[in-house]
Amino acid sequence: MEAEYRMKRTYIGKVKAVIFDWAGTVVDTGVMAPALAFRAIFEEEGIAVTDNEVREPMGMHKRTHIEKMLEMPTVRRRWVEKFDREPTKDDVDRMYAKFVPKNIEALETHADVITNVPQTVEELRDRGIKIGSCTGFVRPILDRLMPIAARKGFSPDVSVTADEVPAARPLPHMVWLNAIRLNVSPIEAIVKVDDTVDGIREGLAAGCWTVGVVKTGNYVGLSAAQLAVTPRQEVQRRMKRAYDIMTDCGCHYVIDSVTELLVVIDDIERRLASGERP
Questions:
Q1: Which residue in 16, 28, 62, 192 is the catalytic one?
Q2: What pLDDT score does 109 carry?
């Protein structure tokens, strides 16, 4: 007779690893360096772009980011008006070749480690939690950024870049490669922290818990200096929009900044202990 019950293995342990995004999550409040680089390469083509147009595809592999911007009806219209033709693969290749050096240049002034990130990471490590990282940057950019971040207090155990996997965000490959390099399983013992929709979708696709960061991230889009002088109502308006974006993409938790992460880890561990899965 067919059994009436089926036994199922359920992980009820602790969080074993946290995988952080870089820009807007642990460094570069407001994701200023990539935004400046994208704006510069379009301006060199004679195409003006808005801040929203620059930021909407943020989190993707940077070549894909350029392609997505060129697919936007507003940007494409300006391109056709200027060049009397559609953008081509050669255009994307030319623009992408400029991105890496421009982003590295922008990092010289936008590589701040976000407030309380080092202290939060230290507390995570005190709990025995490993620290991974992944990014839409390619390895040459991250190789320039990591020593700067390390001097300012953030140094992950593992880093994975978009050019190290067959396909980057929103596919899960960078999270899985982090898990392999960190030697951590099961996937539900991992938390992905990011400030972009594609970064969150990456974590969801991988099967781990996801935490969206808002105030320091891409959708608020203000540097630390700008946050300090921007009227409170404007900051709140931007944050509400960012909270809505991150919640709508299916994020398990949405927080202002990494400072609030430890409380989230406590709640995730409570849910794991009761048999919940991401």
A1: 62
A2: 86
